[in-house]
Amino acid sequence: xMPIDMRPALRFVLGTMTSLALIFPGTAxxxxxxxxxxxxxxxxxxxxMMTFTGDFMWENSWRNVNSNDAVWVFVKYSLDxxxxxxxxxxTSSGLxxxxxxxxxxxxxxxxxxxxxxxxxPTSFSSGDVNVQGVRFSWDYAQDGLSDEQAMAANTITKxxxxxxxxxxxxxxxxxxxxxxxxxxxxxxxxxxxxxxxxSSAAINVANAGSDGYYYQSAGASGxxxxxxxxxIPTSFPKGYSAYYVMKYELTEGQWVSFFNTLSYAQKMxxxxxxxxxxxxxADTIVNRNTVSWxxxxxxxxxxxxRPDRPVTYISWPDLLAYADWAxxxxxxxxxxxxxxxxxxxxxxxxxxxxxxxxxxxxxAGEIYPNAxxxxxxxxxxxxxNLNRNALSWSSGDGRPGGPADGQxxxxxxxxxxxxSTNRVTSGAGFYGTMELSGNLAxxxxxxxxxxxxxxxxxxxxxILSSATGYAGNATNIDWPGIDPVDPNRGVTxxxxxxxxxxDFQSADVRLFQISxxxxxxxxxxxxxxxxxxDPAFGVxxxxxxxxxxx
Length: 550
Known about the structure:
This protein has 550 residues and is mainly β. It has a domain at 16-167: Immunoglobulin-like. 9% of the residues lie in helices and 22% in strands. It has 7 helices and 22 strands. The strands form 6 sheets. Strands 1, 5, 6, 7, 8, 9, 11, 16 and 22 form a 9-stranded antiparallel beta sheet that branches. Strand 5 and strand 6 form a beta hairpin. The radius of gyration is 22 Å and the shape is globular. The chain starts with 15 loop residues before the first strand and ends with a strand.
């Protein structure tokens, strides 16, 4: 199920800043997620607490019997006027803890690691919200700051928000019972019933004839063989336990906002506009990617003219760097199926994220209005729910005489959702997550390799590697791709990852189906190269991130 009002709402806040010397209440705007009136309201030197308030507004908030949406909020601080940035620690954890408050109808949940907080509705509702006077607090002593440093004129803070969806605890099916697929999860050599994930307990995968957990390999290099035996440990996030997942795929606006807080050395390693490792190799528009950065200028800020498009030309190490920076974690392929299919819903063979085995792909020329894309453009066909088959978009940015943007590539996130759409016509997953099928292939942690199964579900701490030559890498040692020689280098490869859901240029519609695992373990490193994109691999990849529910 999903909320009735599926108007697109987003995803990140281009950080609103405040300092003790000057207050900039301003508006932080990103396609309908706004944080207004952000300011310091109190400083308690005895407890080393700096308290802020702000107004949070976003469209299409909901809470229903199945799930609720939320905003993941975190704070960065700078001691040098914005030249370098660090992650701020919250003052306490729990439900509406001391130093945190939200108005009636909303609550704040701070996880134990205090890397940020969730703001979410508490009563059944659906629609636009304006949550005024939200209070949250920074424990600057926990981050090693003295009172003098925290209150210095050059100390500024920046708040970020990402729209999430809470996926509840509960059993679900992985695999859809389709006997014609060679790669989907099934119960035995002669038993096509899907896996039933009924707890967080370890899963013993073996060469069962029926009524077990049987693995079918897609034949990727290094992947476990069909019928092989292995253990998916208790610690591996299987989707049974509750977790939050991003409503939308990572966008260009989110990427630029992250990138602009990095050091110059970190930016050089995360530069998707460079030629290295299959990057875009341009600051112009390529496959509808509009990200630009002058790498020759250490003070230059990256920019995007289309902040609400999914960001392309990112690799697994790029995605995980964002996850670490934001206090999130990667999604597993089992969690991907749960978010798409829902709890205890019997699967339909060959179903897509909207729960049907049929689709309605958007056609070239259907973007409207026939003018510059502003972030509010729609598709003429109100029933369209899939972007596929490498279409060149001839209206919108690519109209005659307009910017050279009418190319093959992803459409803005949430483009199929309107007031009148439902789960099927908006292309949403069971809980309201968008574009799980199509647009970009979603990078996930695979169960098909030991390196994936070693994932413990740890969350980022907001701190990236500063090691020479490896600056800007994620540093969680359980994340797939962690450097096998020196973990201090961080995530340097793609081994243990894969993709689900297909991308805009996929001609084979089976790749968009929930349970298809053709590329679930086929990471670029296993094929002999680490690339952001390479025609030989043939996948434009993106992704979304998660956090285990406190």
